[in-house]
Queue: 2 jobs
Job 1
Amino acid sequence: MAHITLPPGLQGIRGPMAFRPETAKPLNELVEVLLHAPNSLTPGERELIATYVSYLNDCYFCQTVHGFIASAHLDEDEELVRRVKADFQYADISPKLKTLLVIAGKVQRGGKHVTAADVEQARAAGATDIEIHDTVLIAAAFCMYNRYVDGLATWQPQEEDLYRERGKRTAREGYVTVSRDYIPQPTPTTV
Amino acid sequence: MAHIELPQGLPGISAGFAFRPETAKPMRELAHILLHEPNSLEPGERELIATYVSSLNECYFCQTSHGAAAACHLGESATVRQVAVDYTQAAISEKLKSLLVIAAKVQQDGKKVTESDVAAARAQGASDMEIHDTVLIAAAFCMYNRYVDGLGTWQPRDEAMYAPMGQHLASHGYRTPSIQAVNPASAGAAEKTESILA
């Protein structure tokens, strides 16, 4: 049972987002920019970073839903997502993404763990400043989302099938659009 | 030196915000709602939660700037220092102490928050909204702190520089920049040389 009374029937982050639409708005806008908006890193690559950090933080809801969003972007390759979580150095991803996952893993433990050498490696593999910036911020942001979801003890049914179809839709439509399903919308005021 | 090429003369998170305005906007908005907008928890109490979590994460820039904002709201800085050292002995309400217990657990891992932590906060009068916001403030500062440190931002070890930032944050909140670019060479004097984020 969740630590506070959340709207019923909503899994994971959806419960607290529906509980507090004011904070849900920037939370959804941030993840939309970081993971869904066009960028030189593909959405699939960025979702893999989010999934990996959520896995390190042991957040079932986030790693599962973002894992399925990632695979939806990556030709339904669920095995690749599992491999990135288990040992990304041996996964079939670009050397650049591997260097970014090293940085993400350090940020998950604490920002000060990131070294100049880590950043050099990423740059040598072709990472740009904005890609390094976004990797740090995706990793940092999922240290927030994961704690938000787990810290309120939200409902996280351990059934993968629940998340698969939702992942496809979020991959297609993005976070802000999908959030209108479960966040109470302000009623338009007549002027 | 920062890990990436950030705008010159902006300390801490302001450099990341200036580098990437698209992500700065929701990050500013989130902090504004959590820390500044009217709420049953006083802004000073919420800034103390942010400062405490930032000190647990050992983020110099965040703990110093939010500590300065908290001191502005409270009208004194002794409580801010005491909360960082040992909040159980600080001149704060029992309710806030019970919320700081929850915040510290969230800083480690959300799953560490127990039913009895929440029951203890409720027994001190904390509402569901206050418990929610405490969890989200603590979680959000696990993001802000990692962002600031993970980019290797410039964090001058000069408390005097943070006092005007704290004043801006306490009076205007988070939607607008709290600091203008300073010349790193004269950071000791906190000399403002140019405004790049007008």
Note: The domain at 14-179 of chain A is CATH 1.20.1290.10 (AhpD-like).
Job 2
Amino acid sequence: MKNFFIILITKILYIILKIAGKNGGNFLGKLAYDWNSNIFHYFKIDCPIIAVTATNGKTMTNNAIGYVFKTADKKVISNIEGNNMETGILSTLLKSCSLTGKIKADYCVFEVDEGYIPIIFKDLKLDTLVILNFFRDQLDRNGEVESLILKINEFLKNYTGNLILNADDPNVARLGMANSENNNVYYFSVDQYDYATKDIKEAGEGKFCPFCNTRIEYEYYQYSHIGKFKCPNCGYGDNEIYKFATNVDLKNRCFNIDDITYQIRFNSIYNIYNFVAVITCASLYNIDKEIVRQALSEFVLNNGRLEELEINNIPTIINLAKNPTGANVSLRILNEDDSEKELLFVLNDNIADGFDVSWIWDINFDTLNNVTRIITSGTRAYDIAIRIKTSGFSPKKIEPYLDLSDAVKNLYKTDTKKYVIANYTSLQPTRKEILNFNQ
Amino acid sequence: MKELKILYLYPDILELYGDFGNIQVLRYRLEQRGIKAIIDSYSIGDIAPDFTKYDLVFAGGGADQEQGILSQDLLKHKDNIKKAIDDGVFFLLICGAYQLFGKYYKGVEGNIIPGLEIFDYYTEAIEDRKKRCIGNIVIEANLNGNPTKIIGFENHGGQTYGVSSPFGNVLFGNGNQFGALDEGFFLNNVIATYLHGPLLSKNPELTDFIIKYCLDRKYDENITLEDLDDTFENQCREQLLYRFLNVS
């Protein structure tokens, strides 16, 4: 009865929020969760639940899976705004359920914060879990990566649903061994791309084999510690691949899987991995390949994740980077583009960003390709300016501004192509400031 | 051309909190002054280095899990390290490396990771894993008689006791233990500290203090270092000291 009232009240509040033109974020979920933390139990969900977790790429992949399924005329419930903790998932369910807690949909697709998988799916039956990668991320808030992986490993020991894993991340692939009884483990991988390297180029995790502590050997690195690896001692890393992307062509934004060419709207290696995960997932639910191909050729995300804009006719690319790998991937895209460009890097150290900004020293700023000026901003504008200067980029071409609107104003003093990298809390304010500048 | 030889210990293992930045800052400030920086690294599996042949030895912080593997390897070099310190080679040790140069590190389960026992201090983990000293930190250190504010970031569960000569007094943040008055360890040619950030990135005076020490020792002189353009560093310090200490 109590749960019925919780749902009733949150539904009324949701109507009020809607009238006020607000979305509510985590608010409804938080309210319900504080009232009854066991409320997940109450929902009647008959459709498969698919969850996506990772350090980077959750929102992109979650939204792309949802988009593919919707293109196939399926009814999908999803936390597309990226509220990915227990209260966020709960908000999404509360908005979509009937008063008796019934969810009417063909699929629930959720992005879930890495730390919340065991909490949320204690009471909700998970059909498919997609795990993309694990990188160092806000160490002062999240702790070391290893403890996070161990928590998920513990959860997977009793899990028998589909498990879609990135075979090229040693920290992810190891989770396929968490439960030897689970026959539903599917690995995906991407063939060596043009900018892959023999040595690691950016900070990475998982240097030692999780099973025998031997140093892991790589045939090549795609980016960070993602690549073709194997433990020379126990052979870990030699997994059977279910979906393998080949002929990766970032210039033309396409790749092949099973003789089909997928055209996409993004030009980064890490997005290829996201989309191969999407294709793997769609394949498990027998979504028509042609529909998947078409959906991925249309899919874009207009929220500052590799968003391409024209500001006063100046091409501008905005990307979120909340950890070294995110920033390194953005710089990869910048360096793979030979045209002249300017960079704006916005760095905040608010609670949600983590107070520790030392991660910027794990960003590889060496040999920036044809960057003629760098503007820095955010509450840590000077820290990032020092970082870039120390990498050898001339300080005369670096301009720090604590004030974001000053930074944007000065960025658009020239009509050179712009790349914008912003961390978590700075992304939307930066995006807004830039969009406002468009006349 | 003058040169400094730097030995970077376990760069692939003690590399969690951007401590590699310290090496980059050292190299930058040396090269800007026309001094060559020779940077060698040593990690598990490499041929043993002769620590006494270097001017500066650096080691950073790493993941808790890897600390044990490391201690076993480090202990193999104990006598050579001790000799290098006695000879006057400068040692800059951050976080995990700071702990490993003391008597021991006692983990949450009571397990003891033996240290090099070169110094008397020892470190014990706090029982509650979630409790760590995390945050921005400002200390005041005495560098050749000049009181200098040092800005960094600390993130450590270990509480270090028995420090006879600390690196500095805590003005903001925790230090050697929760709410401690002192931070780190500083004796002649050894600075050991919890400060990440990376430490040298926002503290050019400290960096130059170390560089001057190494050059004076190597070339038997009393060098005056050429000034560098520290505009960003000074702006950064001014902004952060105001934020943390309310002083300008």
Note: Chain B has a mean pLDDT of 94.
